[in-house]
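re: that chain from earlier
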Amino acid sequence: MEYPLSITSIVETDHEGRQLRSKVTHVMATADLGPFASFGFPAFFFGKLVDVSEEQILYFKHAPGVDVIFRGGGYKFEDLEKNGVFKLVKIS
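^ sequence. v structure.
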């Protein structure tokens, strides 16, 4: 099944420690969420980004402070391959 993800990263941190974040990038991902298919926040899940360029994937993999929003919950890429296959882990 396909699910929307919203991804942002840190662009700059000022001298007071405040973070300026990038614009939000909206992408789709395929994933099998099992019992979380319709609702809830899995602790982690595997999937694949859909119709995302290799350049975007490299940015998501290497940019500082990348956060992923799924159903309003915060996640981080624990693993992201150049073909778009990923593991997302919930952040507390």
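The longest strand covers residues 73-80.
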